[in-house]
Each structure stands twice: as structure tokens, then as C-alpha cells.
């Protein structure tokens, strides 16, 4: 055996890009292709025209990615749209000014709930980005996406794994189970320190998933924890840390022991196909070339206003009132406590599930049982903190997964991506030269400095603890990667209130324990003029992502168009890529599943 894949490329070289992609997936997908050409988008009947006073009215309740997407699609189709948002357009995807940080005519330092990450297997969100005009970009805001070139798994007391994104070479002409097995084995070889027999077992489990029919995926594998599916209990610590705990903690902010195999495997499959050049919009790991509001949200809001969309900011939705089987009004409350009602022909609920379900009173829930099932959906904390540094600190050109950190930390140095901007000259007081943006996914485990969970710490203690955990993984080789002396300041998401007896996070993340898929609602409700969108609404991506929010908004708009009898073109919804070569094994598995037999590759 010469270790080649039959095309002249080595197995390790062939899958080098996939290894980096998977490592990035283990560290960044919580926070979100075009192979030859994207699926054509259904054009609206009158794209770009201003809405008239006689057009049907729509109240979009929530101004995050889902709400702005719904407003965009509806406005292009001639509806009168008003977006009601409690905080600011963009929701969890927005960037925000650090209060009091600007000096000398500079912009405030940019803070955020968490760093943006837009992998190449997203297909619907990139389509929207292309349709948002941006000066100098032929492809609109999509032109502000830039690719990372490497990824790191930072270990504490172990050698860090640093993986470049390199060409995967010529991928196999057919994605047969054998070709996928060799590719996956090469991917695991790149990580190192995992016994050969464990590598073989993990590959066999992924082959089971890749060849499983949809019924088995939404049935048995949705009910099976990822930890159990990949046999973690009997494997080595490295296997458990890298392939079980690391992936689930950092992707879906949940625990391997309870995370749904369907959710985790769907994400891994999408990343794998992206790395192999199948069904992708672009490179596997992409970020924005400026703070999110500058590169995306502000241009989007400006474009929506040009289409006639109105925005009302500052009031929270408290109730939906129903009469005659239809929603008649939404009750809003401003910061002073004063309430008022707004009316519309149609209502699109685009709030996160933990907020949306508080607006569904008993009468609304009685009208559609799927709303009550949303009470079983769970959220958890996955929240960002930014460190502003006095010197550029390009740890690497990509994301760092601090794989052994108790708080499941991931980070990325942002200023290196912001081409055409001088961080020191453009932001803050002139002393900060870089922004290290960090996501914290685990808030209920003790840290290494204070022995307290993140929820038990003060904001200052959280900052010191996160910094210490990053240093533990990056400075353990004798080289000082992170220096205390270089810290200018830090900014923790203001949605978090900690340090007291009742910690609060107003912007949480949907998580995916086993069985929760069946409690996720559809975009259309049994109430004719109420539609749902958000990352909790069922879409094929499953994972709580900006892509899921975008796809669900398109589904909500299509349902609204159907209900209203509109002749406007429907929104195209591009599903995750399905390799045609695997459809025959899946069809065989459907027969086996119907007979009560295991998958053909499932050897236990």
C-alpha cells in the first residue's frame, strides 16, 4: 500500500482540508453551498418595488437574522412590513459599540454576542448576502466574506494540533463508502494520538450515519446520544476529548452524553461534503472582513428601509391576542412598562424560542398544539467576550478551539481579517490594536482560577478566568503567546447578568438533546395569519444557526404567500447537500429499517 487514494494524492494530503474543517466545526459552528452553481432563486413578482398603502400588512416580531430575512423576502414581494425589535436589528448576530470607548473621532471598540462564522455549506444565507447591496461589491455583502487558512486545537499539557487549510486535491470521482472510509481515516490521522482501532471504529460509525435512511436518522439516531453512538465510554481519553466532548460542547453547547446523534452527525456530514467540494457556496471557514454591523447588518437595514420596511425599536412583545381563530393584535411593552397594541393582516413571530413562547397565551396555544411542544425545547448559555490588545496578536489565521478548557472556549483574532482598516486608527482610543473574540460554551463547570462556574463569577472574574484558560493551552510550550501586559480592555456581552444569586442570560442558544427534533415546530401554524421563524423552527440543518434562521424565514414567507393567495414567486429554500452516490445505500437501509434490521455497516 502506498497510502494514495488512487488519484496520485496521499490520503493525508487529500483530507487535509477536511481535517481542518472538522477541527473548526468542533470549535465554531455555533455561532453557522455552491459547488458548480447554486440552485436558482425564485424571483418575486416585482423585486425591489416600494409597497403601496393598499398592500397587505405584516408585523415581523423580532429583528434578528430570521426577522430581517422574512422582512427582506416580504418587502421584495410587495407587502407592507414593520419589524418590531426589543434591542437592535441583527439580534444575536449584531455587533455593538463598547460604551465610552471612542476617543479622538474614532469609532467605539466593536463588541459582539459572539463571533460570526459562515461555513461554505450554508446556501440560503449566502444568497441573502448577495442581495444586500454594498458599495464596491458586485456580490453585495457576500463580497465581505473572507476565508481562514488554518485552525488549531489548543491542548493543555499536550502538543497543540495546528492544521492548515490546504487544497484537498482531486476528490474521489465517486463518494462510495470505501472512498469515504479512506477520507475519514485520513481526517483522523491528522489529529494524531488516537489509537488505530479507535480510528477504525469511529469511521465505521460515521459510515453508519452516512448510509442511514431518513427514518432511521429521525428515529433511532435522534434518540441516541452522540456519546453512546460512537462508543465513547470504552475509548481512550483523547478519543473522548477530541471526538465526543469537544465536538458537542463547542458546536451545540450541550454535553456529549445527551446530545442527539442526528444533530451532531448532520453537522459533520455537511462539513465533510463541503471539504470534498460537494454542495458548497465557498470555503469551509469564512468570517466577515469588518465588524458585523459594518459588513452586513447596517447595509441590510438600509436596504430594507429602501424597500419600504419600517422599524420600531425598543419595545418587547408580551402577548398575542386571538379572536375568531386569527391573531388580531400583538401587545408591546416599552422600557417604562407602558403597553400598546399593534395590528396587521399577518404576524411573523421571529423571536428566539425562549422569548417567543412567552407570548403564546392559553388561547393561542389551544389553537395549535405544536406551540405547547416548544416548551420542551431547551436553551443554554453560549456567550462571547472580547479582549482588546495593545499589539496585534495573530495567534493563527483561523479559529482556535481550546479543546481542554473547562469552559469550552473558542477564539479568533479578528483584526487580521479586517482589510482596509487600521484597528488602532479606526477604533477606540488609539491604544488598542487588535480584538481577540472568544466564545464561552460551558457556564456550569468550575474554572481553574477561582474554582467557580462562570455563572457564579463576577464579570471581572469571568474575564480573568477566560484569559487564564486560554493561556493554559497556548502558553504551555514555553512561548508567551498571550501576555497580560498586552490587555487593553475587555467587553462581556451585556445580555449576561452574573455575580448574584440568580444569573440571567437574555440571549441564549437552542441546544439539541436527544428527542428534541420532534418538538420543533414548522413555520406554518394552525392559526391562518401566524407564522414562525427562527433557529428553533424545523429545517434540515437541524443545528441552531444563522442558516437555519434564514431558511425558516423563507419557509414562513412561503406559507404566508400560500395563505394570502399571493402570485409572487416563492422563496427558494436550498437543502443541505445529499451525495447521489449514497442514495442507493440509503434506499437499501430504508428496507432494512422497515424490517427491523440494523444498518448494513452497523456491526455494533
Automatic annotation (TrEMBL):
Residue span(s) of domain Amine oxidase: 306-561
Gene Ontology MF terms: oxidoreductase activity
SUPFAM superfamilies the UniProt entry points to: FAD/NAD(P)-binding domain (SSF51905)
InterPro entries: Amino_oxidase, FAD/NAD-bd_sf, TAT_signal, Zeta_carotene_desat/Oxidored
Residue ranges of the region described as Disordered: 90-109
Domain of life assignment: Bacteria
Gene3D superfamilies: FAD/NAD(P)-binding domain
Name under which the protein is recorded: FAD-dependent oxidoreductase
Amino acid at each position: 500500500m502506498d497510502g494514495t487514494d488512487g488519484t496520485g494524492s496521499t490520503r493525508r494530503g487529500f483530507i487535509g482540508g477536511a481535517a481542518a474543517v472538522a477541527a473548526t466545526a468542533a470549535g465554531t459552528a455555533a455561532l453557522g453551498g455552491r459547488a458548480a452553481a447554486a440552485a436558482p432563486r425564485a424571483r418575486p413578482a416585482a423585486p425591489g418595488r416600494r409597497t403601496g398603502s393598499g398592500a397587505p400588512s405584516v408585523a415581523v416580531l423580532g429583528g434578528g437574522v430570521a426577522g430581517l430575512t422574512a422582512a427582506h423576502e416580504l418587502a421584495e414581494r410587495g407587502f407592507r412590513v414593520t419589524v418590531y425589535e426589543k434591542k437592535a436589528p441583527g439580534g444575536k448576530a449584531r455587533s455593538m459599540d463598547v460604551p465610552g470607548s471612542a476617543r479622538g473621532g474614532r469609532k467605539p471598540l466593536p463588541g459582539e454576542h459572539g463571533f460570526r462564522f459562515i461555513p461554505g455549506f450554508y446556501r440560503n444565507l449566502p444568497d441573502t448576502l448577495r442581495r444586500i447591496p454594498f458599495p464596491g461589491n458586485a456580490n453585495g455583502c457576500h463580497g465581505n466574506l473572507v476565508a481562514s487558512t488554518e485552525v488549531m486545537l489548543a491542548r493543555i499539557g499536550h502538543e497543540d494540533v495546528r492544521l492548515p487549510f490546504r487544497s484537498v486535491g482531486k476528490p474521489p470521482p465517486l463518494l462510495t463508502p470505501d472512498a469515504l472510509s479512506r477520507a475519514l481515516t485520513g481526517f483522523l490521522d491528522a489529529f494524531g494520538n488516537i489509537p488505530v482501532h479507535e480510528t477504525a471504529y469511529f469511521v465505521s460509525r460515521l459510515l453508519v450515519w452516512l448510509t442511514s435512511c431518513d427514518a432511521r436518522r429521525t428515529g433511532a439516531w435522534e434518540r441516541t446520544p452522540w456519546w453512546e453512538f460512537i462508543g465513547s465510554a470504552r475509548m481512550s481519553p483523547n478519543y473522548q476529548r477530541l471526538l465526543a466532548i469537544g465536538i458537542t460542547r463547542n458546536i451545540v453547547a450541550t454535553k456529549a452524553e445527551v446530545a442527539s446523534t442526528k444533530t451532531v452527525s448532520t453537522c459533520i456530514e455537511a462539513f465533510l461534503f463541503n471539504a470534498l467540494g460537494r454542495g458548497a457556496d465557498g470555503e469551509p471557514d469564512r468570517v466577515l472582513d469588518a465588524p458585523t454591523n459594518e459588513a452586513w447588518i447596517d447595509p441590510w437595514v438600509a436596504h430594507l428601509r429602501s424597500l419600504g420596511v419600517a422599524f420600531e425599536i425598543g419595545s418587547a412583545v408580551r402577548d398575542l391576542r386571538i379572536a375568531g381563530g386569527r391573531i388580531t393584535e400583538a401587545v408591546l411593552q416599552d422600557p417604562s412598562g407602558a403597553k400598546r397594541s399593534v395590528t396587521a393582516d399577518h404576524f411573523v413571530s421571529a423571536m428566539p424560542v425562549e422569548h417567543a413562547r412567552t407570548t403564546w397565551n392559553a388561547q393561542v396555544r389551544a389553537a395549535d398544539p405544536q406551540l405547547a411542544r416548544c416548551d420542551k425545547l431547551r436553551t443554554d448559555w453560549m456567550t462571547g467576550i472580547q479582549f482588546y490588545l495593545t499589539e496585534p496578536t495573530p495567534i493563527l489565521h483561523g479559529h482556535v478551539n481550546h479543546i481542554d478548557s473547562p469552559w469550552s472556549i473558542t477564539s479568533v483574532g479578528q483584526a487580521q481579517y479586517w482589510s482596509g482598516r487600521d484597528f488602532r486608527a479606526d477604533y477606540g482610543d488609539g491604544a488598542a490594536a487588535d480584538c481577540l473574540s472568544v466564545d464561552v460554551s460551558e457556564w456550569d463547570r468550575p474554572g481553574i482560577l477561582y474554582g467557580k462556574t462562570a455563572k457564579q463569577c463576577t464579570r471581572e472574574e469571568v474575564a480573568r478566568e477566560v484569559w487564564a484558560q486560554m493561556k493554559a493551552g497556548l502558553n504551555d510550550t514555553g512561548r508567551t503567546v498571550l501576555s497580560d501586559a498586552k490587555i487593553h480592555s475587555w467587553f462581556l456581552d451585556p445580555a449576561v447578568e452574573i455575580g448574584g444569586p440568580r444569573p440571567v442570560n437574555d440571549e441564549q442558544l437552542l441546544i439539541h438533546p436527544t428527542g428534541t427534533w420532534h418538538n420543533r415546530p414548522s413555520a406554518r401554524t394552525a392559526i391562518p395569519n401566524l407564522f414562525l421563524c427562527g433557529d428553533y423552527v424545523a429545517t434540515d440543518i437541524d443545528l441552531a444557526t444563522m442558516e437555519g434562521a434564514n431558511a425558516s424565514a423563507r419557509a414562513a414567507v412561503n406559507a404566508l404567500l400560500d395563505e394570502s393567495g399571493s402570485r409572487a414567486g416563492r422563496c427558494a429554500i436550498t437543502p443541505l447537500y445529499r451525495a447521489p452516490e449514497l442514495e442507493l445505500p440509503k434506499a437499501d437501509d430504508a428496507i432494512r429499517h422497515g424490517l427491523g434490521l440494523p444498518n448494513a455497516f452497523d456491526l455494533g
